[in-house]
Amino acid sequence: MLIEIGHFALVLALIFSILLVVLPSIGIYQNKSSLAQLSKPLVWGQCFWITVAFFVLMSAFLSNDFSVKYVAENSNTQLPILYKASAVWGAHEGSLLLWVFVLSLWSIAVSIFSKQIPSNLLNLILTVLGAVSFGFLLFLLYTSNPFERLMIPPLEGRELNPLLQDFGLAVHPPMLYMGYVGLSVPFAFVISALIRGQLDSSWLRWTRPWTLISWAFLTVGIILGSWWAYYELGWGGWWFWDPVENASFMPWLVATALIHSLSVSEKRGAFRQWTVLLAIGGFSLSLLGTFLVRSGVLTSVHAFATDPARGLFILIFLFIVIGGSLALYAWRYNLLQKNNPISLFSRETGLLVNNILLVTAMLSVLLGTLYPLILDTLNLGKISVGVPYFNAVFIPIMLPAVLVMAIVPFVRWKKDNLMRIASHLRLYWLGILALILVARIILTDNVYVLLSIGLFIWMLVHVMVLLISRIRSKSIFSLAFVGMLVAHLGIAVFVLGATVTTQLGIEKDIKMSVGESHNIAGYDFVFNGVSRHENKNYRGFKGDLTVLKDNKEVVRLYPEKRQYQTGMPMTEAAIDPSISRDLYVALGESLGGDAWSVRIYYKPLVRWIWLGGLMIAIGALFAAIDRRYFLRIKS
Amino acid sequence: MIFSWQMILMIVLSSIFLAWFLYRPIRVNLSDEDSNIRINRQRQNELASDMSLGLIEEVYYQEAKDEIIGTLASELKSIESNNVETKPLMWSFIIALFIAILSLSLYSQLAPKAMPSSLDKSIEPLSLSESIETLKDYLIENPGDFQALKIMGLAQIGIGNVDESIETFESAYLINPADIDLLLQYANAIAASQEGQFDGKSKALIEEAFILDPQSIQVLYFSGIVAAHEGNLNGAIEFWQKALYLMPEDHPDRNTIEEALDTVLNLQVK
Predict the structure, then answer these.
(1) Domain of B83, in residue numbers
(2) Does residue B121 lie within any of the structural domains?
(3) For position B243, which CATH number holds?
(4) How many domains does one find in chain B?
(5) Residue A546 pairs with which residues in a beta bridge?
(6) ipTM of the complex as predicted
(7) Which residue, among B9, B26, B109, B151, would best test binding to A if mutated, counting the most A CBs under 10 Å from its CB?
(8) Distance, in angstroms, between B142 CA and closest chain A CA?
(9) Across the interface, which of B17, B64, B98 has its CB nearest the CB of A41?
(10) Which of A40, A67, A299 sits opposite B250 (nearest CB)?
(11) How do residues A486-540 score in pLDDT, each as one tens digit?
(12) Residues of chain A contacting B101 with CB distance shorter than 8 Å
């Protein structure tokens, strides 16, 4: 009966979302305050029923209720309890339920932490969020019901995809969804302002902290995905320009542009049209990404055709959200036209340049992601757009963005002079040049690495100069300022880590017999053999390697080759992590006798990639909790 | 269609919850006007702070300040409106009716028309060991059931009884030696019992599977492993490349084969 209650709770959540759209709208239109103020209780009620449904499904997984089709297809009795819980969002239906669950949490957060937002605006924002959740709940109930029963329950469930049997599944999708779905909040702010025709200071002020928080979650979600892929797939890579990865990266790029654009719109009242478009674009891309990934379109164009109901629903929903928003934008365009003048060289222009570069980068990724799909759909042939395209197009666009990023915080609002900046910073620039030359002499002659070292020093020096000048002026440090410094430094740390590990990393595929040793980057890897290994839900082989440096043991590594119930082997890499380098070993195939193929990687500064990402997210959170958002000023 | 008392309770709770807030509405935060005045005043303070930090020139400070004041002036045009009273009883009744009718009719449309037979009993799924025992009992009555034997072999592998699984697979093999899935699982079990070595009977079974279906992705994958074991790297490459060619792009095992192929290709280069 519990499953039916979960199903019914979802139905009630759908009814609440309908009421959330209808009742506050009537209240706002007819000036019936008590109806308009129902938006908050409706959001709470909706969240309650979605939470009930979510935990009912989780309990079905934990209690091995294989009478539920979704559970039977994605879990079995041998699955460890953590993976059973995270298997809830391991496939399409459950991940959509997670989507609406996260959306309801965001709606609750907006309803609780928005005491300084005018009630009229807040009620409409919650109504827009209710409309979005209505679309998703309808999609969930009509095409992707996770509570569907099997008439004859199997004795045992199927295997959860072995790749997903990992801690990464427990944390990566929820974080990513917090980011994806979080972008619905700035979208709702913008749509509400457009509907009301009051594009005033309130929505601009309160959109930014919500955008920053969702951007921080999106950043954490992306870096968790990268870290998971790194240790789980056994290739030693951290980013593959895979379409699924791109689907999360595109909204991140637009959200990055949005938080910068919002700062100009909020402070100087400029770029309002642009800000509105970015808010719409960010959420539309996150919708596009979610649906492309979940409909199967990205991995196979034909998966779309196999379920026409889902495909059609997706297209209609996307059309309504994107088309409707743009129509609203066009209708209210006149209200957005008022702009304060800015000069060619000013902080506003710098941020605009940064925005243009970010959006161009996003478009290049969008093109590379969708172009093969479009060709395939139109039966114009199959092409593969891979790493070479993205590296060739994306990096040259982002390089000037990083350069601009260091300079813009020094540029004044309204109007400034390039010579003033140059005279202020020229000595530091000479110092940076000297440091790059030193790096060239003592570290490496690799051009890309030198360039990334240069960018890192460039950012570091500028951040330090900003910090010192702010300390000297004895002014109060705002969290927004600290957040900006940490996030910008995070970009520099990321760029250095990504370039060094890509350019100076070493990869070797070796045939190793017991007792054999290979030297890689100054480390001796001694192969001690392979033994059988078993666990509750898999069995396989465990390699044993001793890593020595200068004849002293550094670490013993135990890479595994696992075989789950599906029969196909899985590689479980063994990693010795450190801040300066990772030693990464993956066990390949048995080559007869006691010989095995072994893949060994030396990855310098690879941890800096995720450290940089973490710094970016922390910086965003600092900026989101800046005191200006909590100040109460008497009117 | 089953409607339980729990569902009725859920509807009643939802209706009471909303009615409560109709009778006791949540207090209004603040007006648009108040909000904009506060924010623009704060913007002025921030502008002054920016000037003290040298983030805006004095010449442009006044201009920016005027812009803020101008913005505020344009925003203070909100239309005064009087609140219209609502009738909580009427609205509570409408909402309750709406929730009840719509939720029950939607649910009756979405829920299965008949419930699974086992739902009346409390579902206690069997563990793998219990499943094996059940299958053993079943096989005493039906010793010739090929599918049951195959499932039992798989379950025995699942709990690590490799030797028993080999015996079970052998029984299934005697009934139907032309089932590719069985041949591969059987070969796999034998290989597991001999330290992962695909030789002897294990190899013979994979060869049999290859004769039956040389286009099967699984068969090609295992044939590649056998070739690699024998040091025949070219053979392994050929099998795996063919498997990849036949595989759909989104096949979950694609990565595994690509990885194995990369390893062997790299070994060949060296």
Answers:
(1) 5-110
(2) no
(3) 1.25.40.10
(4) 2
(5) A526, A556
(6) 0.80
(7) B26
(8) 18
(9) B17
(10) A299
(11) 999 999 999 999 999 999 999 998 999 999 999 999 999 999 999 988 877 788 8
(12) none
